[in-house]
## 1
Amino acid sequence: MAEVKEIIEKKESAFSFGKEEMKLLRDPLNDNNPVTVQILGVCSALAVTTLLTKAIVMGIAVTLVTAFSNLFTSMLREYIPKQIRMIVQLVIIAFLVTVVELALKAFNYPIWKDLSVFIGLIITNCILMGRLEAYAMANKPWRSFLDGIGNGLGYGLILIAVAATRELFGKGSLLDIKIIGPTSEYFLNTNEIWMLSWYTANNLIILSPAAMFIVAILIWIQRSKNRKLIDIS
Amino acid sequence: MHSTSYVIKFTLVMTIIVAFVLALMVSGLKDIHGENESVYNKKGILSAVSVQLGKDVNAMSNEEVQTIFSKQIEQKVINTKGEELTPEQIKEETDGRSSTAEQLDMAKEGKKADADKLLPVFVFTASDNKKYNIVYTRGKGLWDEIWGYIALESDLNTVAGQAFDHKGETPGLGAEIKDNKAWYGQFTGKKFYNTSGEFTSISVVKGGVKDKTNQVDAISGATITGIGVDEMLERGIKYYEPYFQKLKSKESIN
């Protein structure tokens, strides 16, 4: 009984939130961003960034999966046999991805229809395996959970930035609401010059190569502002 | 290092837990998934007559879609000879999978030989008692399949409304067949037959419309999707010709 009490006490103190924990959340957003610094998960960043809605849903889905796969792996880290640890990690990821997919199919069917293949492909997202191997296998559950949230948000942030640029200049809209370019269909009167009524949507931006340019430009901007990132990756 | 027996036990326990939870979720959410899918399909069909409904179909609630569908839509399944099938015949043809038009697996029907194809017809009765025949057609876009519901006026020639959809066309380019009202709206009022009654279909043309009765302007940057729409309309509407003939002869008798 004494042992049980000790464990409970340990668990309670494990939920502290200090400077270290804040760093876990903040680092992946800038200094250690999974997409722009570690260059992981780029394939899905190209595929789901044609529309802002898709990018937001994808960002949330990945954040949930990284957070909980980190949490579960960390909780099981002392019991997972070393020989098959990668397979176990993959099962945990695949399980969570399937849960997210089933839930999305039940609660927002049209978005599920739009994203379908890419939700399933979260399983192969390198960020997940990377975080499990590099962090969750060696750290306590609460911190691993925060690390997962941080990395998911870091990925989502880049996705949203790329998707907003692509949807705005490629389709002239944001969240499916027409913002720039000539149209009279939506609530904004976009025949005004200041709404860029002369702008013709650039089809290149919608195609995958453009996502590559935009990610590269983001990396360029980030490094020119954050000198310590130069030559580390 | 753990022993082999530990590894096997760990794997077994983990697999059983994961499989159990997932199976529980799938069976628990089955009804919701089924309803979502059927409402999504129904919305696709009703989108073809959204002008006659006077409402945005996508903004409707699930219940609203179900009531409109059950009250104002009459479902028929016909074969390429234009004969209407009874529910029992439909069941037999589809190995018991479906008994109504909305349940037909159109991807499968598309692969059948022409003589065995089943075609859905949805007869929509508007609030002013006008009837519209909604027909279905399916073809190939650039990346994957595209399909459309075309609502026809009572002359079985003029387009009263249309809704296209696709599996994976490029957003902003091919996907405009579904998203861009200015593009798909062009079809309304076009005719499949010319004045002497010959089938001309409705073509998607580049570089401006010359014949206003049966041509629509293509989307720039979406050449292959445009060709796909053109092709599926020409091939798909032809299957319905015997049915149209029968409907017309029935009317002339009456």
## 2
Amino acid sequence: MDNAAYRKASTTAPAPWGRVRRSRYWADRALKIVSTLFTALGAFVLGWILLMLLVEGIGGLSPAVFTETTPGPGTEGGGIANAIVGSLILTVLGIVVATPIGVLAGTYLAEYGKDSTLATVIRFVNDILLAAPSILIGLFVYMLMVQPMGGYSGWAGGVALAIIAVPVIVRSTEDMLRLVPGSLREAGAALGAPMSTVIVKISWKAARAGMVTGVILATARIAGETAPLLFTALNNNFWFSPTLMGGVSNLPVTIYQFALAPYQNWRELAWAGALIITLSILGLSIVARLILKKDKVR
Amino acid sequence: MAVVSDQFVVSNMQTVRRRSSPAFDQGFRWASYGSALIVLAVLAGIIGSMVYGGWPAFQEFGFGFITSSIWNVGQDQYGAWVAIAGTLTSAVIALVIGVPISIGIAIFLTQLCPPWLRRPVSTVIELLAAVPSIIYGMWGLFVFAPFFAKYVQIPLTTIVEGMPILGTVLYARVPSGVGMMTAGIILAIMIIPFIASITRDILDQIPTVLRESAYGIGCTTWEVMRYVLLPQAGVSIIGAVMLGLGRALGETMAVTFVIGNANRLSLSLFDPSSTIASRIANEFNEAAGMQMHALLALGCILFVVTFIVLALARLLIAGMKTH
């Protein structure tokens, strides 16, 4: 009771200020309530999506999902083992190609190029690639590899994913190397170490946690990419060739095709795949954050 | 243990010398230089392949390729206007919905949130960006679209029916939940984490003194935001919005699921349509001849537009840092 009376008194100020005070109070109140609600809405949507995946996906999870290959149209049962393995191979291929290129290019920007014109241009281009539509990267790799090689292949898929991962790694490597104090490098140089030794043994070592985080985030980013695989690795309802030539089955495109299919078991597999892929990606993102946080605390 | 192994390396002069040989030093420099050039080459390659692949279509249809809304595979006639209009409309809807929400989230995180809650809430919002596009598509098609049709489209359609302008724009002929508006809403959710986290960083960069002196003369949070922080951060926030726009223009899978993929121009926001990216995703694998060139020409247009938008975004955001 007392509290309510107090609040009323504090919002309706003494007569001469009454009007002004009240509008200021409500503008402020509205801003606070609306921003809090918007934040809650964001969290709510994430929760809604995760809940949907759990509800729909857990029902479809069974040992067969991990052991059997994708079923043909109208066939009962089946799993997505070939898609899971294919996705792992494509993601690893992409990250293995992207990591050296990304780390070295990031090193160039932070250690060699710095504020030179070339470094500025590359930084600019890298930022554009970071947000460029991934479907265009699929088209590019189609023209670059699929057409000349005469068919879809896992190699083309891996390259397309690598092109998406490189800008992420370049950016995080450069940012992390820039946090390393210049005095550390100078100390190394004063001992007579050449530039490459200073970079490898001092800068990289000091920035290691951040650089690893960048690679993990890049992995999370490419693991769920669908658009660049549509025209490169395509998909495959059977075990793909060990040479990775021809279509290579992968989770995202399998989910895309199965989710929109008229068969009940295909849809269930799509939901199971969606659950698996989302949990892995969110898990990777959280692990990356933990590594960085632990490093900062230390 | 670490000390022992360090000593071992130092005492083993051969290892040290081999690693720091001038050849290795030069090789390392060239390798990083080469890797940096690969980044440039990729961008050049994307532009080059789009222009090369789309050229026959531009040549065949000329400027009419952009303005024509015919897309007829049977007669080999292609025009990009429906896809361009769809791309722009869905992105604008995404901005109209997404920008206020993103700025609200950034305000909450920087001004209102208790410190212990800041990190978890930031993480949750950033995880929205980690959810794969295809999952947004499934959520949009199987969960959000039926919900949207039942609780928004059907009631709204009965209300606006017969009204002069609203009766066209908000009228759903087939209230299935699939269409331009749903695509815009999903895109809004997808770009929120990007705009929100950049805006948060920008607001954090503004010196605390400015904010505190405004509070000190008795400003409310609204007044501090409106008259102190927003004017300071305005240009960079526009940059963040442009970055979100760039993402919305090129988003593919989520849009392909929910936009309905129809080649028709409609004044109603609830009608199915298509975007450049969704059309490429739908048709490219079965395309041959002129259709393929037309799709690559669409890709070329998309690339030019996103390039301009993203370049502007970067310039605006970078302007903040140098000040």
